[in-house]
Amino acid sequence: MAWTGKILRVNLTSGSVKQEALNMDWAQTYLGQRGLATKYLVEEIDPKCDPLGPDNKLIMATGPLTGTMASTGGRYSVICKSPLTGCVACSNSGGFIGAELKNAGWDMIIFEGKSKKPVYLYVENDKAELLPADKIWGTSVWATDEWLHKKHQDPALRIAAVGRSAENGCLYSAVINDLHRAAGRSGVGTVMASKNLKAVAVRGTAGVGNIKDPKRFMQATTEAKQVLAENAVTGQGLPTYGTQVLMNVINEIGALPTRNMREVQFEGAHKISAEAMAEPRKSDGKANLTTNAGCFGCTIACGRISTIDRTHFTIENKPQYWGNSGGLEYEAAWAMGTDTGIDDLDAVTYANFICNEDGMDPITFGATVAAAMELYEAGVIGDKETGGIAFKFGNAQALAKAAEMVATGEGFGKDLALGSKKLCEKYGRPELSMTVKGQEFPAYDPRGIQGMGLAYATSNRGACHLRGYTVASEVLGIPEKTDPLVTDGKAGLVKAFQDATAAFDSSGLCIFTSFAWTLENVAPQLDAACAGGWSPERLAEVGERIWNMEREFNLEAGMKASDDTLPKRLTTEKANTGPAEGKVNGLSAMLPEYYELRGWSKDGKPTDKTRQRLGL
Amino acid sequence: MLRSLHITPEKCTGCLQCEMACSFENEGVFNPAKSRIKVFTFHEEGRFVPYTCTQCAEAWCMQACPVEAIVVNAATGSKDVLEDVCVGCKVCTIACPFGTVNYNQATGKVIKCDLCGGDPACATACPTEAITYIDSDMTGYERMRAWASKTDTAASA
Amino acid sequence: MHHVIVGAGPAGVIAAETLRRLDRDAKITLVGDEPEPPYSRMAIPYLLIDKIKEPGTYLRKDAEHFAARNAEVVHDRVGGVDTKRQTLSLTNGGKLKYDRLLIATGSHPVSPPIPGIDSAGVHPCWTLEDARAIMKLAKPGANVVLMGAGFIGCIILEALASRGVNLTVVEMENRMVPRMLDETAGTLLKQWCESKGVRVHTSTKVTAVEAAKKGLGVSLDNGDTLEAALLISATGVRPNTQFLEGSGVDTDQGILVNAYLQTSVEHVYAAGDVAQGRDFSTGEYSVQAIQPTAADHGHIAATNMAGGNTLEHPGSVNMNVLDTLGLVSSSFGLWMGVDGGDSATLTDRDRYRYLNLRFDGDVLVGASALGLTQHVGVLRGLIQTRTALGRWKDKLLDDPTRVMEAYLAGTQAIGANA
Question: Which of A420, B93, B99, C316 holds its CA 20 to 30 A away from the CA of A312?
């Protein structure tokens, strides 16, 4: 129950679309979405397969609470082997398509093989078919969205698509749904495009009705919504300021990585902060932020809907960008602003629009531009490589141009599309790539927030804040405050966050609820909806099982314990200002304890005992 | 005093809790496609507009129904579809100038808002008070009323 | 004051109810020539598929509905009207004096002038009695020919197909529902029917009907002859005005009325399918013969009968909705467009989806659609309010499916950030 019990299996090589029953034993041990889809992936693909070859699979998966009235119950994830990291990729997105897929009667779609010609999948309840996409291949996500809506004459159609960047092989392309929500990280869009799959268009009118105990479910979800409403972060901070509430906060504590993580505080942070987004601008008196927006079922509504100043150089002659679209989230504003040293809010918003329009992960994109800027300033690359664009920190023109070039795969955009690791390797300076396992960092400097260093180093999808967000504890005091500048106790904290996050990510709920909710709040909702008896303890165990499953896949794919590391800059170059001044990240002090707590051997492998305990 | 649904679009975040609450109340499933209230997204404008039947006095749907399947609920003033009487001819769906009576292909009947009999689930579920259920006099339906009177082919003398 | 209403269809019934609301004391008589309580022809197709029983077709479900309103229902037929004496003669021999008369006699099916059209086995589909006869003959596997793919023909298609008959449609125009859908939509509808196993001959006429061994032989002008157990004649209807001969009530296609639905004779009004009422879109007077217009007419005519001519009829928007074997089509207003007006069209032949909007300047004046079931009524609203669409017209030209947004933008506070 709460699961639909149905999987859509799409073989792109043969063009077949088949329905199959969901493995309910796996549903009981891996829950849904991230956990369950990863289980399918690891069972079905060779971990050593070429991520961009036909042997990789791409799974779009909902959770048991997706499509229900549980707050934030609209999530879905895209799972595959990542071309950016070579590890498992699992990118989670909100918007509306996840709920629509569930409403159409499907828990997940498994794509396998590779289509000869560009196609898109059209799903209308239990009817699903592959249709030619030759008219939209080579167009942006936004153009694709418009074309599909017109083609099917259905304003209610929900669409996920890849943009031109993915078609051109950019290694960090996202799958964009509902115009500006993204399964953003690790290049899941690149994998989708490699299969010649342009889009998935879904219309679901069957509904989600298989709730185990509807009355108890309504009670549990109502109570949980109350908790969100009464919490300062989810009830006030996020709706008002969005995730951008963090820009000034993180800057103040000296953990805002600046100019390719050379520094930890940005003098221009306030100009691209949430507060700046709400400030009326001179030209037309309107603020960058028009309104906040919720994803499906979300009672927090942290989403930003923004406009760019029409007189700004990026769009003054481009009326197609004059309207509202998805505005800046904190990580995007950081990567394309702080990390590049750019304090031009409109330029950063424009780059964000382009990332949505053509499906790029703004974190990796921004961080790659930052790396290119360091290469440029160091004289490693010059105008010859960049096509005459001065890639200097703080140059907003370069950022806007870079976004356009990656989107369309032109000029220096081809280099930037590699991500910072391959870019820096190409030009002989691998140490300038701020990545773990090939994926770029998000917006929390592990010199100022020590626990995040361990979270990054051990994340199963490369550097990421959404695999164990100890910022909650170390900065915001959720669930209890820990000192961000010490390493003591962080191994346990990281493990707890990682396991709980895996459970949240497998439920259909948004991880942002965890500012207010713990698994204690999630369990009653799941238990009322799903068969099987779901307690907080069981959820934590499911989370741990998922974590170890992902780890084992990565190890089999070729990852080693030595990859659980950080770029030298973060462990050797001291923070130069702020509360963390003089600090480097103390990863080596945390990692052994972490392995031990995980029940892993010294070379980072789950021991037999651990495997047995978790039923792996 | 009769009460009405009062909608304040600028407070709406587009989360669709109202649509789920409506469909759950009326159909027993979470299914926005079967909701009597719909949230329209104005992407370029950055605005979300919940929209449903205003239970207008003119009640074109009721007047146009050939088989008396739409009746006034004396307690709430809502115009209710009697599902066992509706034959599914869809005349009400073209007659309602607000487009708030819709045909449900699955059941072969039409559906419209009935204020949940006086305790509208959408208003209860709305997290931002974009939808409230308040005294009719205070709902500021002027715009809707203006539209209604313009549409009235049988406008009162 | 004695109000006499001739015709017990929707216009007549709504008029009776309106009169009673406006005048507690008047005498009201409703004369209908069919034996059943007032019923809806709109509901007949649903009777044919057993979705409802006969009482389900009744306009008012309460058996005491008219008695409770002190309105007398007389089952009789009016033979003639003496407008000078203000007297009706009934075919059963009675007379009925009136102070105000409403003629709401509707229309009757027209038999085309085809040899053999009076053969047994040929039926119109118009009355409950016709429906009973059709149900008897339309047995599973029986060959049935439907002559005329107009509104009536199409609406009973499903009923016939679902009874498992072997169905052939013969339409003399080049497409289905030519008075409601343009060539693209009408042709798509034909293809839809064919995909559901119904044979459809367009641009084809029935030339003769003759009794054959097994029922009927239906000859077509393409040389074919179809065998049929049942031929349903649905080639059109004509207003019931014959009884008005010599009454002084002027008629053209239907009864001529002014903006108050008053005929050429004082104290005599007309409403519904029989009346040539004002068309909202053209401002001209024509017979619309649709349910919502009948409801409008009944209400307005009654108001003017009760209180002197106080309520002007601004005209009714011509509109139709049709469900043909599960494909819903609709049309509104000037769906064929106006000279110099823009139009926006989306066509998806593979999925039988079609949407066409017609503009005059930046005002929507007409629309037609296939496969649209959500928020369709707003097309009527936009047409009838003559809403100036402004910049939304361009958006609709680009994507006509955004019509609901266009309406909301014109009536709600959307904000002006873009």
Answer: A420
Which of A439, A460, A483 delimits the end of a domain?
A: A439
Which of C51, C291, C415 is closest, CB to CB, to B91? C291
B20 and chain A in contact, CB less than 8 A: yes
Find the helix packing angle between A490-505 and A519-529, rounded to 10°.
20
Closest residue, chain A, to B104 (C-alpha): A205
Within 8 A of A150 by CB-CB distance, chain C residues are 346, 399, 401
Cis geometry, peptide bond prior to residue A479 (ω within 30 degrees of 0): yes
Please give chain C's pLDDT, 418 residues, in tens: 999 999 999 999 999 999 999 999 999 999 999 999 999 988 988 988 888 999 999 999 999 999 999 999 999 999 999 999 999 999 999 999 999 999 999 999 998 999 999 999 999 999 989 988 998 999 999 999 999 999 888 888 888 888 889 999 999 999 999 999 999 999 999 999 999 999 999 999 999 999 887 789 999 999 999 999 999 999 989 999 999 999 999 999 999 999 999 999 999 999 999 999 999 999 999 999 999 999 999 999 999 999 999 999 999 999 999 999 999 999 999 999 999 999 999 999 999 999 999 999 999 999 999 999 999 999 999 999 999 999 999 999 999 999 999 999 877 655 443 3
Element (H, E) at B70: strand B70-72
Interface test with B, best of C300, C305, C380 (most B CBs within 10 A): C380
Best A305, A324, A349, A513 member to test B by mutation, with max B CBs in 10 Å, is A305
Q: What is the CATH number of domain C326-412?
A: 3.30.390.30
Are A46 and A182 in a shared domain? Answer: yes
Tell the CATH topology of C2-108+237-307: FAD/NAD(P)-binding domain (3.50.50)
Q: Compare CB distances from C346 to A146, A150, A156 and report the shortest one's residue.
A: A150
Best A151, A153, A283, A304 member to test C by mutation, with max C CBs in 10 Å, is A153
User: Residue B156 falls within a domain, yes or no?
Assistant: no
Q: Is C264 on the interface with A (CB under 8 A)?
A: no
With respect to residue B102, please indicate whether it lies within any of the assigned structural domains.
Answer: yes
Residue A236 Cα distances to A228, A245, A403, A514, angstroms = 9, 10, 33, 15
Residue span of the structural domain in which B65 resides: 55-112
Are both A367 and A299 inside the same structural domain?
A: yes
Q: Using alpha carbons only, what angle is made at residue B129 by residues B126 and B132, rounded to the nearest 5 degrees?
A: 90
Chain C positions touching B95 (Cβ under 8 A) are: 292, 319, 377, 380
- Chain A residues near residue B126 by CB distance under 8 angstroms: none
DSSP state of A263: B
- Are residues B154 and C405, on separate chains, in Cβ contact within 8 Å? no
Are both B5 and B43 inside the same structural domain?
A: yes
Residues 39-68 of chain B whose Cβ lies under 8 A from any Cβ of chain A: 43-48
Q: How many domains does chain B have?
A: 2
Enumerate long-range contacts of C262-267, CB under 8 Å, 24 or more apart. C262/C301, C262/C304, C262/C309, C263/C103, C265/C83, C267/C83, C267/C86, C267/C98, C267/C99, C267/C100, C267/C101
Would you give the end-to-end CA distance of chain C in angstroms? 60
Using CA atoms, how far apart are residues C296 and C318, in angstroms rounded to an integer? 12
**CB A96, CB A176: distance < 8 Å:** no
For residue C360, report the phi and psi dihedrals to the nearest 5 degrees. -120, 110
Q: Which residues neighbour A208 within 8 Å (Cβ) at sequence distance 6 or greater?
A: A2, A4, A66, A67, A68, A99, A102, A103, B29, B30, B31
Q: Do the domain assignments include residue A491?
A: yes
Domain containing A38 equals: 6-203
